[in-house]
């Protein structure tokens, strides 16, 4: 689970616990009793959020990368990646990993630029290495999509930040991977 989701979870649990403690003290409960009620409330909120994460399923979504194709040779450290997503209002990002890096690099989150029928067409400018790193290497590209709100993604542990490395692919719907070769 990402640190962003942990922050949201802890903020919800702490604010709820503090509210319970404040009400308890106004009702003239002893400080120890108010603290105990706050601690129980905080653990209850965290347990509830964990159960929500386990049992609530995200909205169905389909995503695919249409360009570049697998085994394509590219030059430079930036690449425009294009694809399709359904439903067309879903948020899309791409994660990139080189053959020498174990981390996935999250690219900017975008929405469809144009739609036709029930499909959205998206594109994202992705970084594949740096000017000095990643030359003469293969890169794996995976498109991710979510049709849920940002709050839902944060509450279910599926939130992440663009531009950050991830040890695992974030828990959004995934496309088939595309492997490209960077020349220069």
What does this structure look like?
This protein is an alpha+beta fold and 184 residues long. The chain folds into two domains: 3-55; 62-182, Immunoglobulin-like (Sandwich), CATH 2.60.40. It has three helices and eleven strands; from the N terminus they run ααββββββββαβββ. The strands form two sheets. Strands 2, 4, 5, 8, 9, 10 and 11 form a seven-stranded mixed beta sheet that branches. It has a four-stranded antiparallel beta sheet with strand order 1-3-7-6, with no helix packed on it. The mean pLDDT is 90.
Topology:
Blueprint (H helix, E strand, L loop, with lengths): L2 H24 L4 H25 L6 E6 L5 E2 L3 E9 L4 E8 L5 E3 L7 E3 L2 E9 L9 E10 L3 H6 L9 E2 L6 E2 L3 E5 L2
Parallel strand pairs: 2-11
Antiparallel strand pairs: 1-3, 3-7, 4-5, 4-8, 5-9, 6-7, 8-10, 8-11
Please work out how many helical segments DSSP would assign.
3
Describe the global form: elongated
Q: Pairing-aware structural class of the strands and helices?
A: alpha+beta
Give the SSE string.
HHEEEEEEEEHEEE
Total strands: the figure is: 11
Largest sheet: 7 strands, mixed
Give the termini separation.
35 Å
| C-alpha-based Rg, rounded | 21 Å
Q: Any idea of the CATH topology of the largest domain?
A: Immunoglobulin-like
Helix content: 25-40%
The average pLDDT score comes to 90
CATH architecture assignment name of the largest domain: Sandwich
Low-confidence stretches: none
Report the top-level CATH class of the largest domain: Mainly Beta
Strand content: 25-35%
Instruction: Quickly count the domains.
Output: 2
